[in-house]
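Running log. JK asked me to keep both predictions on one page so they can be read side by side. First protein, sequence followed by its tokens:
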Amino acid sequence: MTEIAEIAQLGAKILRQQALVVDDVHAADIRQAIDLMQQTLAGTQGVGLAAPQIKVSKRIIIVASRPTRRYPYAPLMEPTVMINPSFQALSDAKEKGWEGCLSIPAIRALVPRYQRITTQYTDQQGVLRTLELEGFVARIFQHECDHLDGKLYLDRVEDNGEIISESEYYKLLR
């Protein structure tokens, strides 16, 4: 049976809290949280999800770039579970790009993000991984990591005039 969690919405306190480090990737509660995150994300048009979005204060994200109605030009990648993720920018260069969030429906904004990063995370088997990401996938990773630190993409907007409704965003895609 597929279980889908309710997504925490803007204003929920958990979205503004620092998520807790995962000490044991094999613990039953962590396995359950990951399964719930995977099922929940699969039932959305989203390309990533952080544990705080399903009301679990743990440092777990899923990056799952794929073309959807919300992101028609997203590259395809396998959903990747990343536990205790961190990153470093490979240059100071940032680029603005459109972002939305399952926790902030119907709004989009231009957000500056690093274009090339190197990531470090623990996978579901407990293996420490390093991965270089760029472009849209690097954007997803940074967006989801922000959730772990109690930040939302709207916090990074430089000009409030760059926040628009999703219906206006879809007009830009045409």
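And the second, directly underneath as requested:
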Amino acid sequence: MANPKNPFDPAEMFKAFDPAEMGKMFQPQNMMSMFQPQQTNPFDMEGVIKANQRNFEALTEANKSAAEAYKDMLDKQMEVFGQMTMAVRQQYEWAEGTADADKLKAKTAAMNEAVEEALAMMKKLADTAREANEQAYASVKGQVSEAVEEISKKNRK
């Protein structure tokens, strides 16, 4: 019987943040294809894409950097977990061969505490990243509204 995939495998989770894969989502042709009409239209979408190629490339690079930052955060979370659990394992390694029931109970309790603390730190890293994203979006959201209003004004003329 084949081994089922581990849903907590970091390698599988990190694939979602692969900069090359994320970059594909932001290629100008992929982004603008949803605006392309099915029938013939005098509107030159290809011209718009070409005129803004530099901006699309900058967006792609920015998103690659963001993906790398998320991958870095996940790597750091795993590092925190590894350091915390390794410290407990090393501390109690000497008890492996001679451990009585009380020592094993203490070792298990210490490992549980280390895992709990590591998970709390990992959550704090993720919460901090989420808050930074929310702040970044909030700072741009007003600019988006202003830009949409400006476009509307130009189209009313």
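Observation for JK regarding the second prediction: Helices lie at 10-14, 19-25, 28-32, 45-51, 53-92, 101-156.
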